[in-house]
Amino acid sequence: MSSVTPDYMMIGCMAAIVILGTIIRPVMTGYLSILLVGVFTIVYWRTRSWPDRIFYLVCSGTLLVAVCAAAVVWEGLIIAWLVAGVIATVMKVTLTAKDLPALLAACSVTAIISLMIDRANHVLLPLAILCGIAASVFAVMSIRAYRFRKQYAGDSV
């Protein structure tokens, strides 16, 4: 008997949110977002043994987030959180109780920036801030993982 892992639950939530968003607000990009959830899922399953798997997941997830956010900003934000969660589970990032305030702060900041994007006519500055935050989070996670491997594997890394 196999158990449902968090990454499968997040991909299922992604599909449910996109399908529900397409049903509630029928927009031109609705079917494209459903197709991109399928592409993200296929990339997730097919790249299991590839060394650069995270790169392909980020690329397919970015397309999915962009198409969903073009229709509804809040749907794009939730999909972005879920894509980040899937990528974090692929990177085997485990959250502890000490990480919870940082995670809540990051979610709050992205929600505030999404609110700014939703209410303002000027999208470039908040989007640049949001992309900078996401890039810095991934950089910090990569550096943390590298330091962890270096500490426990020695100088062979």
Report on the structure:
This protein is mainly α. It folds into two domains: 1-92; 95-157. It contains six helices and no strands. The chain has helices spanning 6-24, 30-46, 53-71, 73-90, 100-119, 124-153. The protein is globular. 20% of the residues are buried. The model has no long low-confidence stretch (mean pLDDT 82).
Topology:
Elements: H1 6-24, H2 30-46, H3 53-71, H4 73-90, H5 100-119, H6 124-153
- Subunit arrangement of the protein: single chain
| Proportion of residues in extended strands | under 5%
Into how many domains do the coordinates divide?
2
| Low-confidence spans | none
Major sheet characteristics = none
Amount of helix: over 70%
Characteristics of this structure?
157 residues, mainly alpha, 2 domains, 6 helices, 0% strand
